[in-house]
Amino acid sequence: MTLLIVTLSIAALILLISAARVNAFLCFLVISIAAGLMLGIPAEKVVQSVEKGLGDTLGSLVIIVFAGAMLGKLIAESGAASQIAGTMMRIFGIKYIKWAMVLTGFVIGIPLYYGVGFVLMVPLVLSIAYRYKLPTVAIGIPLLAALSVTHGYLPPHPSPSALVLQFNADMGLTLIYGIIVAIPAIILAGPVFSSTLKGIKSQPLDTFVSKDADVIDAPGVATSFFTALLPVLLLAASSLYPYLFDTTSSVGKIVALIGQPSAVMLIALAFATFTLGINRGRNMRQVMATYTDAVKDIVMVVLIMGGSGALKQVLTDSGASVEIAAMLKNVDLPPLVLGWLIAAVLRACVGSATVAGLTAAGIIAPLLVQTHVNPNLMVLSIGAGSLMFSHVNDSGFWLYKEYFNLNIKDTLKSWSVMEAIVSTAGLAGVLLLNAVLP
């Protein structure tokens, strides 16, 4: 009976989001309360359970996600992102332009939220294709594959960060493992797959073609790269430090403090405030206005994550998670594959990678404890599954279709297949990494 109630609750969630077009945050709240009542939580305690789930999830995520959004917005508005893209073009040239797109997407995709990265970078891709008479789709897909992977796999992006906290994983190790898994996935879905797409004709609308920007006041190349990558460098350094040095020393304790994800994002944001803001002639009020706009861009995503935390808490408090975990333990699939599969199915149904990943995490979390699976790898497995086969119920599908001015068939052949490759290659990478890790 418990499994039936949970299944019906998730089905109702999917229908409300995808068919009825109800806001995902409100869907999570309504379904969480209804599921709690059906699963036997006393009526007077259901709302308390929902509030606890919201508070626990948002309390640990707000700093990371909002600071990350602020950093990404400043990188975009300051011209640092354009500097990174221009540098990649100069290094690789037209002959190896796909690799320039891959690296640009990867570097910019780490600090920038996916939607911001797409809207910022795709017009540049379209302009390059127009200027040099290149196949638009074939050079755009490598950049979008990199943006997609960083969005689905790597902290400090919202969904991976939330999964890290739900599974009590290590943010730095997840990032390191994620980069290892991401590289082959991006290569396969980007330069390799895009070589088969030269026959797709695309005539982007002039509206979406970027005009040559004035970069006189843009930050330097070194500053742009270092500021964009600072969160990655700090997280990686703090994770590697215990393997190289004594963690009980005074320096070790300081590293432990500044290596916390929230502290890392605050340090990176403070650094960017001066390197990309104050030092570029902006006053503090202008920089803070940029940060305010960034919060507006990301607030609904954060609320959706809070809503998913509410559903997870209801499943936990009712005992449903333990029952489901016991059932799933007998399924003849490795836990990492099972986590990927649940996320992939939800992604196909809901369309949102964030909703799919966080919902799958609530289902699979108890199994993680029982099977002793590496939590860092489970984050990556579910993250990869949440990217599986984007189609007509995903806003990213339509964003890509309209910017590249394609028909549905060509959008499915390029965008949807690219997302499927990213997802399956990610699962393969996770399983290989799981086989070699102690």
Automatic annotation (TrEMBL):
A Pfam family: GntP_permease
Membrane topology: Multi-pass membrane protein
Residue ranges of the TM segments: 29-46, 58-76, 96-122, 174-194, 215-237, 257-278, 298-316, 336-365, 377-400, 420-437
GO CC annotation terms, alphabetical: plasma membrane
Keywords from the named record: Cell membrane, Membrane, Transmembrane, Transmembrane helix, Transport
GO molecular function ontology, one term from the record: gluconate transmembrane transporter activity
Record keyword Transmembrane helix present: yes
InterPro entries: Glcn_transporter
Localization per Swiss-Prot or TrEMBL: Cell membrane
Homology family: Belongs to the GntP permease family.
Name of the protein in question: Gluconate transporter
Organism annotation: Mucilaginibacter limnophilus
Taxonomy of the source species: Bacteria, Pseudomonadati, Bacteroidota, Sphingobacteriia, Sphingobacteriales
